[in-house]
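Exercise: predict the fold of this chain.
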Amino acid sequence: MAEFAGYLRRERGLSPASVISCLRHARPFPAGLETPLDTALASLSAAQVTAFMTSHHGRWGTGTAKATVTALRSLLRFLHAAGQVPDPLASAVPPVAGWKLAPLPPDVSPDHVAALLASCDRRSASGRRDYAILMLLSRLGLRAGEVAAIELSDVGWRAGELMVRGKGRRRETLPLPADVGEALAEYVQYGRPRCAGRPLLVILHAPYTGLARAHILAVVHRACARAGLPQFGAHRLRHAVACDLLRHGASLAEVGQLLRHRDERTTAIYAKVDIDALRTLARPCPAAGAL
């Protein structure tokens, strides 16, 4: 598993949090094989892989089952490339029934976003930092890990740009709206403590280090509590950005560019948010007695 973790980091470019998640979901499969493990892997069959998934599926929710499918396929590809498993068995992992476009994407109303921002006491260092974080999430639709990874040199103050470290080690430049830039500048000038390194967002108490993804999630949860709202995560604000853009006339292509989706099918889920436009596509219900 240690070698698999190194493969995920070096070859696949996964973040530390994604590596931990993948290991957690993949580990039960080799743990359930007979010992010695090298002998069990050398004789591994597609039937064993399928039997593992079918025997455990009833205990998992859809999310856990899908994560296990992804992790197990990745593990089997690695084992085959490393010569531990003679046959390519990733395709033997059965898919999980689940329809990505079935539910509506979770949305947060503009009033709730405004309440989150208003809950920050911008007279304090913690309030200035939390306000800057919430602005990055609610205006640019960044992921929690992307916000935590921002460094001081990533902000192009004169050009009005922000360099984002995204999934798969991708680095992309986004325009920096004036209100987001003002929130960041206010925090850097009056709220950010001096620290080693160059992280933009820093914890509140010494020793001062950069924030992690878990800190960003905690900021959103605390803001929900201050605003008297049901608790939701940082990713819900990413959905809110997309829904708000569509309400104001943006196209799906423009939404996909801002959210930096690799596949336009990922953005397609937001097509269902525009209920008024969808009504024009629905055929009228037949009248009673009509032929």
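Check your answer against the key: The first strand starts at residue 155 and ends at 156.
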